[in-house]
Design brief:
This protein is α+β, with helices and mostly antiparallel strands. The protein has one domain: Alpha-Beta Complex (Peptide Deformylase). Helix content is 21%, strand content 35%. It contains 3 helices and 12 strands; from the N terminus they run αββββββββββααββ. The strands form 3 sheets. A 5-stranded antiparallel β-sheet has the order 1-2-3-9-10. The protein has a 5-stranded mixed β-barrel with strand order 5-6-7-11-12. It has a two-stranded antiparallel sheet with strand order 4-8. The termini are far apart.
Length: 182
């Protein structure tokens, strides 16, 4: 299993390199990324970019449900489809005064959450592990995962998006979320 890189590691904020050839080494990396993603508990991971395991390559994987198949996306290119913004729904915690909030988080930024808005539909062009090209439209929660992971490949962390949207970030403390002062 691979170690997940956490902030402030510079690999997380640098754009990745395209995969020129899908070699046995790339296939091994993806298999190790899958094991790493599946092993993530509290929180469960739904996506993992190669940068998050220290590799500056344009690869991410996603698994929107705990029992779902893992989708491998190599050299992904995202196009936003006209739609309403939606808020991430991967984690529900009690805010300090007992309110429930839907939050987005990141395995590379442990215990930090925010009600970040993302586009509700994304069209993604990518290659699978066999080099076959796909064009798929993702909606809802899956679109959020794709946007988050594509941001990773472009060197953008979700906290940067929080600052752009001027949303409050929260730190997890047990079952509670404590607002961070900005």
């Amino acid at each position: 299993m691979l170690k997940i890189v956490t902030v402030p590691n510079s690999v997380l904020t640098a754009p990745t390199q395209k995969v020129k050839t899908i070699t046995p080494k790339i296939k091994r990396l993806v298999e190790e990324m899958k094991k790493t993603l599946v092993a993530q508990k509290d929180p469960e991971g739904v996506g993992l970019a190669a940068t998050q395991v220290g590799e500056s390559l344009s690869i991410f994987i996603m698994r929107p449900t705990a029992k779902g198949e893992i989708l491998v996306c190599i050299n992904p290119e995202a196009k936003f489809v006209e739609s309403d913004d939606i808020v991430h729904e991967s984690k529900t915690l009690k805010a300090k005064k007992g309110k429930q909030s839907k939050m987005e988080g990141c395995l590379s930024i442990p215990r930090i959450w925010a009600p970040l808005k993302r586009k509700g539909k994304i069209q993604l062009e990518y290659e699978d592990l066999e080099g076959v090209k796909h064009t798929t439209e993702f909606e809802g929660f899956e679109a959020i995962i794709v946007a988050h992971e594509v941001d990773h490949l472009n060197g953008i962390l979700f906290t940067q998006r929080c600052l752009e949207q001027n949303v409050t970030m929260y730190e997890e403390d047990g079952d509670e979320l404590i607002a961070l002062k900005t």
